[in-house]
Amino acid sequence: MYLEIVSPERVLLSAEVNSVTVPGIDGEFQMLNNHAPIVSVLDKGVIKVEGNLEIPKELKDVVTKAQDGKWYFPIKGGVLEMKNNKAIVLAD
């Protein structure tokens, strides 16, 4: 699936990914390829992304890669829309 993570300052990610886990206001949930359409408000936490990503050097201060191979993007909240195998996160 295609994932875009956008903050007010910059685009954090725009890439094909295997999965994304987000901090929904009612709890964390994961989306995989061909997930049903959804719109959700996001809570403070981290977006966990699994995939073979190339993170630009200017984002290394924001994004971390854990030993489990997942990329972690901290957010203060936001909104997510998943539709047609594309997820867009507007993050604070």
Task: Write out key terms for the chains shown.
ATP Synthase, domain 1; 92 residues; single chain; ATP_synth_F1_dsu/esu; mainly beta; globular
What can you see in these coordinates?
With 92 residues, the chain is mainly beta. The chain has a single domain, classed as ATP Synthase, domain 1 (Sandwich), CATH 2.60.15.10. Helices cover 0% and strands 58% of the residues. The chain has no helices and 10 strands. The protein has strands spanning 2-6, 11-16, 19-24, 27-32, 38-42, 45-50, 64-65, 71-75, 78-83, 86-91. It has a 5-stranded mixed β-sheet with strand order 2-1-10-9-5, with no helix packed on it. It has a 5-stranded antiparallel β-sheet with strand order 4-3-6-8-7, with no helix packed on it. It is globular. The protein starts with a strand and ends with a strand. The relative contact order is 0.31. The model has no long low-confidence stretch (mean pLDDT 91). It is found in: Endomembrane system. Produces ATP from ADP in the presence of a proton gradient across the membrane.
What is this structure's SSE topology?
Blueprint: E1 2-6, E2 11-16, E3 19-24, E4 27-32, E5 38-42, E6 45-50, E7 64-65, E8 71-75, E9 78-83, E10 86-91
Parallel strand pairs: 1-10
Antiparallel strand pairs: 1-2, 3-4, 3-6, 5-9, 6-8, 7-8, 9-10
